[in-house]
Amino acid sequence: MAYTASTPPVIISLAGSDSLAGAGIQADLKTAHSLNVYCATVLTAITAQNSQGVHGVQTITPELIIAQLDALKADLGSRISAIKIGMLGDAQTTTTVAHYLQTHFANTPIVLDTVMKATSGGQLLDQAGRDVMIKELLPMASIITPNLIEAGLLIDQPAAKNMEQMQTQSKALIALGARAVLLKGGHRDHSDATDVLTQAAQTIEHQHFSAPRIDTQHTHGTGCTLSTAIAAYIAKGETLSSACEKAKHYVTHIINNAQSWQLVANNGPLAH
């Protein structure tokens, strides 16, 4: 649906709640709002979380997840232009989401943020959930957006340490069933933060999106924000490549905006 000033494009975020409001559903809402996109939400889990770690997780029942999706489908219907998937938590939730989307949103662009571990170390998807994600969600998604750690977990390899390994692992994820991969390089020890886009259907093997690394204590929620920004730009009519490039610029901008913040000692939220 075309964007107008009075009727913004609509996306759905399926994700967990972050009590610090730096990641998860809260970050997704802030991201979409700042990009003039309407974000409806489906809560998959509640976390007790702050800058120091994840201190508790309660997943939402499959029945309530389906009820949330049914309610949005009945109300928004064809206005839903893209879907972002974040934290799923376990195999049951992953299966529920995969089956619902296969049945009701098979032709809607899906951005899958392969959330498995919080940057602070908390476990956000169990092993059985990972297996279901690979089997059921990877082939459905228009693009997946793993960080280096998550990519390694998906293909049972150590995290990539250089650009050659990032490109090799991106191709391994395509071979695993992904249609497109944006492998995020923010965890790599390098002066630049470079992400690699690999698309199965494109003749150009890899595209690189780079930005200078910013020295800041506020990076909590970068992955959630990036994937939601990609979904938002897709909903506004951008190509996948353009959506990734613009989302990268957006995240760099709001990381930079948070440099002067002193909310917490480390791993603070972004300035959306």
Write a short abstract of this structure.
The chain has 272 residues and is an alpha/beta fold. Helix content is 39%, strand content 21%. The longest helix has 18 residues, at 240-257.
General description of the model:
The chain has one domain: UDP-N-acetylmuramoyl-L-alanine:D-glutamate ligase (3-Layer(aba) Sandwich), CATH 3.40.1190.20. It is 39% helix and 21% strand. The strands form 2 sheets. It has a 6-stranded mixed sheet with strand order 3-2-1-4-5-6. The chain is of the alpha/beta class. The protein is built from 8 helices and 9 strands. The mean pLDDT is 92.
Through-space gap between termini: 25 Å
**Structural class of the helices, strands and pairings?**
alpha/beta
Give the total of domains: 1
The CATH class name reads Alpha Beta
Q: Kindly report the spatial arrangement of strands forming the biggest sheet.
A: 3-2-1-4-5-6
Output mean pLDDT.
Answer: 92
What spatial form do the alpha-carbon principal axes imply?
globular
CATH topology: UDP-N-acetylmuramoyl-L-alanine:D-glutamate ligase
CATH superfamily: Ribokinase
